[in-house]
Automatic annotation (TrEMBL):
Region spans: Disordered: 147-210
Organism: Streptomyces nondiastaticus
Name of the protein: Integral membrane protein
Coiled coil spans: none
Membrane is among the record's keywords: yes
Alphabetically ordered keywords of this record: Membrane, Transmembrane, Transmembrane helix
Segments crossing the lipid bilayer: 12-31, 51-72, 84-107
Length: 279
């Protein structure tokens, strides 16, 4: 399970489910019986309110569980012809519909309790979020953003010039192990006058500028739709599938394609990079 697969809409669904669970233990009905003995105000778990429990509270909790569980399932997996998210949306709409008709009706002397009101609000928020998440980009955004790309070290990956032993650019070792410095004003590759002009001739590569380093820096990205990840060697075999809502690390660029690394450490070639979201 990867929590980065959850969206902001899923966060609202989880919050609505928690509110609905709390509301199930609060009074469902409030009796107007001033000056007389009032019966105990029942909550959603009382046997006398049997239709309330499965059609309002359990239906809403099951809906939230199905919607969240769908984020951790492979794309396209279905249960009796429908995906888990579709089943969850249907249960959420049913629970909101039941809550609405329950709060409208009621016998004389009976008022909606705190649990009934909170249950209606929770189911309404649950159903609205389930219906609107696929259509509103703000709700489709990841609930937990991935870490940003790390800036390259200003000192590079290897030893710094001039600090090695002897190292490039440092002092050259003398015949007795001592350090021998270049004379003042001497250019690299030129004979040393103190040695009588016996210095070795410069190599053919001396004085040529070094090849510029690549300007690619690793970054985090997410795909808008499921994308196949092929072998890093260019083979057509698919090794993984990148899912929306999950952050992956791009470690290399090959033309328009990216070499991506999955959460479990597998690396492959992402050929279709259109519409990706950079972290």
């Amino acid at each position: 399970m990867n929590i980065r697969s959850l969206t902001r809409g899923d966060g609202v669904v989880i919050g609505a489910a928690v509110l609905l669970f709390i509301a199930s233990f609060l009074s469902f009905y409030s009796y107007d019986c001033a000056g007389s003995i009032c019966p105990t105000e029942p909550n959603g778990w009382k046997a006398g309110l049997f239709p309330v429990l499965p059609s309002i509270f359990l239906a809403g909790l099951i809906a939230a569980g199905l919607i969240v569980a769908a984020r951790f399932q492979p794309e396209g997996r279905k249960l009796v012809g429908l995906e888990l998210g579709q089943w969850g949306t249907a249960f959420a709409v049913f629970a909101a519909w039941s809550s609405l008709w329950t709060i409208i009706g009621g016998a004389q002397g009976v008022s909606p309790g705190v649990g009934q009101i909170l249950g209606l609000l929770a189911n309404a928020a649950l159903a609205a979020t389930a219906l609107m998440t696929p259509r509103i980009p703000a709700l489709k955004a990841p609930l937990v953003s991935g870490p940003g790309p790390q800036a390259p070290s200003p000192y590079g990956a290897g030893p710094n010039p001039g600090y090695g032993y002897p190292g490039p650019g440092g002092a050259q070792a003398g015949p007795y192990g001592g350090a021998q410095q270049q004379p003042y004003g001497a250019q690299p590759g030129q004979p040393d006058a103190s040695l009588g002009g016996a210095a070795a001739a410069p190599s053919p590569a001396a004085g040529q500028p070094a090849a510029p380093a690549g300007d690619f820096a690793p970054f985090w990205f997410a795909v808008p739709v499921p994308r196949p990840l092929y072998g890093e060697d260019g083979s057509p075999a698919q090794i993984a599938e990148l899912a929306p809502g999950t952050w992956y690390l791009a470690v290399e660029q090959r033309g328009q394609a990216l070499v991506a690394q999955t959460q479990d450490g597998r690396r492959g070639l992402l050929q279709d990079t259109t519409g990706i979201q950079r972290g």
